[in-house]
Amino acid sequence: MRAWRGEAISQASVIWIGGGLVMAASWGVVTVINKRLLEDVHPVPLNFLVRIVAIGGLVALTVPLTALRLWPYGFGINGAAFWYIAASACVTWLVAFSAYYYALRAGSVAVVAPLTSTDPLWTAVFSLLLIGVALRASTLVGMAVTILGVVLISRWMEGGAGAMAGPADGAMTPLPADLARPVAAPGGALLVVSLSLLAAAGWGFSPVLIQMAEGAYGEPSAFMMLESQLIGMLALGAFIASRRAPLFTRRLTGPARRRMTWLLLASGALEALFSVLFYLVIDELGAVLAMLLSSTAPVFAIAAGMLLLKERLSARLALAVALTMAGVLIATAARLF
What we know:
The protein is mainly alpha-helical. The chain has helices at about 1-35, 45-65, 80-105, 110-115, 120-130, 135-155, 175-180, 190-215, 220-245, 255-285, 285-295, 295-310, 315-335, and strands spanning about 165, 175. The chain has a two-stranded antiparallel ribbon.
């Protein structure tokens, strides 16, 4: 009986690790879609518009699942969970993403991307400090290997196609000037490093807050997912209104507007899927493993880039992809076996 229970637990872990990889794949594809959207929409307004679509996608996903009782989670929440999710939304959308965009504005992607990819380490640190999660040795080793792979991917994608955005016909065109070129800022390298690490810390802190919210309420809920997106949308909208920031980079023609609309719908729908899976994977596997699985998103972004943007995969980039996946396997080995 004990052996059978162990086998069942292992099979459940395999299923949820697979769900985590689907989650990462959805985010990887979103990255490629957003590369194209950035030709037409400024970064912060794009984030705001995607929030609107993502909220609609979450409603479309969670209402039928709840009404038809296809999952055990409803729309309930308590006071403690509400404030944990509110804090998570502010940390994610106001702090982490703002710091990330300002870091990109002040420095090069080659510096910012590796630094922000340290977010799983921050998740592990905050999990240990706030909820007392004991980390397995295999998780620590796998985390180190995964982060190394993501760092190498970030660095080795900088040559050529990694800094380009493709139009609808698949040809490669440069990103808008305000995204492609770093802007000089007071403080130089120290400012870039500080902002990048602040973004990574925010992204690492957020899943721990989500896990604390799920613990306070007893389970994840659809309301938590919607609350986070809604607070993010309202915060971003207030920022755009206060800055009177323009939405679009240029006047859009009819075909360009239609392409933008379809890409926005695709991006928001995939983010909604990512959000649902993110909460469920945290509930089943914990914040640390959820962040490790989500850190494989660059692998799927590379694959989507090869299919949609006609990018080529170099031998050393293939090595970095294999290294990243090996790190996830090491980190999850204890649960698999």
